[in-house]
Model the fold of this input.
Amino acid sequence: MQVALMQPYLFPYIGYFQLINAVDTFVLHDDVQWIKGGWINRNQILLDGEPHLCTLPVVKKSSYDLINQCKVTDIPREKKKILGKIQSAYSNAPFFLEVMPIVKDVFSQSENNFAKYVLYSLKKIIQYLDVPTNLVMSSELQKDDHLKGQSRVIEICSQIGAVLYVNPPGGVGLYDKNKFKEAGIDLYFLKSNKIQYQQSSTEFVPNLSIIDVLMFNSTESVQEILKQFTLV
Done:
């Protein structure tokens, strides 16, 4: 069993989906603290040739709330405004007619728990891309919730029966391959190759939302992009 673990992000960049595609089971780490100022509920699209930030409003009771304790703001005009920006940005994109219904479906869902909201969006996208990876929530696993950091990740992997764990390269300084090996798990880090495709702008703008990738590429092309990485 090959496993990866990440916090739930709304319409994240292509590297997130490379991680999903690289494993059998992808765990959404929903029972950890919300990252203030992070990218959990926002990302960038390409509007008029420039990166443009789109943010889904979320209600938090305190700065210590876990991700799965946060609620999506049920204000139709906010969602309508985001959809309007996406439509304006990509109405002439080659795969707009295929992708925009998926985006609208995500924003029209009645679910207001943010973690479940993102789970739904990820399932819709990987279904569109025919990615068979199983998605699970860490809050649904029987584990020791007092564990932190590396010990917590190893515990989650052990609960699922992982023999290989894949992490983004940002974890190189945080995780020890020997510690994972002691638990019977091989640790690898996913390093994305240089990704570039034809956009509407003159110069390529990298690391935008998956929406941008889907709007400008066929499913077959995206499936190839998902494989453009190495494990180190």
Summary: The chain has a mean pLDDT of 95.
